[in-house]
Amino acid sequence: MASHILQVSSSMSLHQQLRTLSKTLSLPSHPHRLRSLSSNCKMSTETESSSPLTHSITLPTQLAEPVQIVAAPGISDFQFRTAINSSLFKQWLKNLQTETGILANNAMSLKRVLLQGVDMFGERVGFLKFKADIVDKETGKKVPGIVFARGPAVAILILLESEGETYAVLTEQVRVPVGRLSLELPAGMLDDDKGDFVGTAAREVEEETGIHLNLEDMIDLTAFLEPSTGCRVFPSPGGCDEEISLFLYRGHVDREIITQLQGKETGLRDHGELIKVRVVSYKNLWRMTADSKVLMAIALYEMAMREGLLLQSKT
After folding, report:
1. Would you kindly state where each structural domain of the chain is located, as residue ranges?
2. How many of the other CB atoms lie within 10 Å of CB of 223?
């Protein structure tokens, strides 16, 4: 196809230049018609824009200061209403107002929440992304308030003794956010509002490793923490609300079981879970993975053993 170069002489009048442009680009030749097109485009943009979705709530800790919840562009009415009514958002608001919460002593106030993202897991809210405007009343300054909400989760340290050696059962998973395969404890999110931490932990272990655990044999390691902590651990409280309950299971197995578990492919494939079981020596576990759940579980387990809160495993 030939290339056309448009040249307009500077000596032409404005009216002549417009005629030349109109012939080349097939635009109207009259200046007032060009202005009319520009005006129509502006009106169309203004018509398409709409005011953001908003919702006002009143918290018991600040009755005189209603909080405005605002949806960012792109958030649908369904997403907005579902997010506000979700257990994730309600739990976050509850955390603010607990005895150790940010709003408990009336030194700070929540002014506004900008809802920026909603990810659905089927019919329920999986993840929320929002920005909270929380102001320190003494200084009048905002505190950092960007939140990725995913709610409570569980993880379990499985220790299996065989022929005098203690092994830990891990899962190898594809983790897109960090761009690599990761060795982790079997873990999962609570998928309901019932708070069944022990049952969820046992179910996740069976889904991810194929091992069936009796609930009565599981020990809550995070229960050893002081009550003021909520008996949970927070891997990244600067940006994420996730709180994890860590459990322990100890058992004895034949060497054949260790061999069978090594490299076993598991997970809910229809949910995109591509999981392999990895069995490693417990004495080397602390240096074999960067998974915070593993390292926190080891710390709690070792300290509980040192303090005599756990009985030595029978050999």
Report:
1. 54-149, 152-306
2. 15
Domain 152-306 has CATH 3.90.79.10: yes
Quick check: helix, strand or coil at residue 40? helix
Mean pLDDT by runs of 10 across the 315 residues of the chain is: 38 44 41 37 40 93 94 96 96 93 94 97 93 96 96 95 96 93 91 71 83 89 94 95 96 93 74 80 96 97 96 61
Which of 306, 281, 271 is closest to 126 using CA atoms?
271
